[in-house]
Amino acid sequence: MNLKPNPFLAALRARRPQLGIWVSLASPFAAEVVAGAGFDWALIDMEHSPNDLTSVLGQLQVFASFPTTALVRPEWNDAVLVKRLLDLGAPGLLFPMVQSADEARRAVAACGYPPRGVRGVSGSTRANNFGRVSDYFARVEDETAILVQVETRAAVAAASAIGAVAGVDGVFFGPSDIAADLGLLGQPMHADVWALILPAAARLMAAGVAVGTLVVDPAFARKLLADGFSFVACGVDTALLARGADALLAAMRGATGAAP
């Protein structure tokens, strides 16, 4: 048995735009609802959700039956956590709050086996089908997507150096945290935020680095993809549920005249 190719990573390398969704409900059942939609990629979030290793495992098992590639965002650039997520079979990781090229190198090292990295070795994990994937050790580093997130003014200024680190497959701009760092907390779509992001993104794209982000405005998400962003998430499962519930209740109250 051979290791399956990573379709998300293959698409990034071929410069095919990938449309994604954020998954924060921490439930395999909810993940199955999302997986059936057919997004190119989904991000299972551990940083801002109640996910743990067990819930992430269940969601990875769900997404394995669908074409959507399920990436994971660990809560931090922690080599021990990274080792465990990769052993669970995560096909890619999005590292939060990467501030420098050195921090990007640490992320890459956490994903690689010695002598290239520091990942601990186990011969029987879900990632290698419990020892049945004969070429796992030879190929896994080429099939694991390593994405790093820049989320402050300092990180945006260093984005070109971060993106140039060997082993980094893409740079992801976090507009919410960038907005906060600019004194614009809660305003990720503010013009000043994107005036900072877009020139840095253009420099990365000119250097051949895949660039991504999360925005919940579908029109703006489409524009970013049209302008050369490689991977853009356009929604969050929790927000979709909340807004759908709100809209349904508002529509019913409007129709019946019921008091709020």
Q: How would you describe what is shown here?
A:
The protein has 260 residues and is of the alpha/beta class. The chain has one domain (7-256): Phosphoenolpyruvate-binding domains (TIM Barrel), CATH 3.20.20.60. Helices cover 43% and strands 16% of the residues. It contains 12 helices and 8 strands. The chain has helices at residues 7-13, 28-35, 53-63, 79-88, 101-111, 136-139, 153-157, 159-163, 175-181, 191-206, 218-226, 237-256, and strands spanning 18-23, 41-45, 69-73, 92-95, 145-150, 170-173, 210-214, 231-236. The chain has an 8-stranded parallel beta sheet. The longest helix is centred in the C-terminal third of the chain and has 20 residues, at 237-256.
Furnish the topology, listing elements before pairings.
Blueprint: H1 7-13, E1 18-23, H2 28-35, E2 41-45, H3 53-63, E3 69-73, H4 79-88, E4 92-95, H5 101-111, H6 136-139, E5 145-150, H7 153-157, H8 159-163, E6 170-173, H9 175-181, H10 191-206, E7 210-214, H11 218-226, E8 231-236, H12 237-256
Outline of the structure:
With 260 residues, the protein is α/β, with parallel strands linked by helices. The protein has one domain (7-256): Phosphoenolpyruvate-binding domains (TIM Barrel, Alpha-Beta Barrel), CATH 3.20.20. Helices cover 43% and strands 16% of the residues.
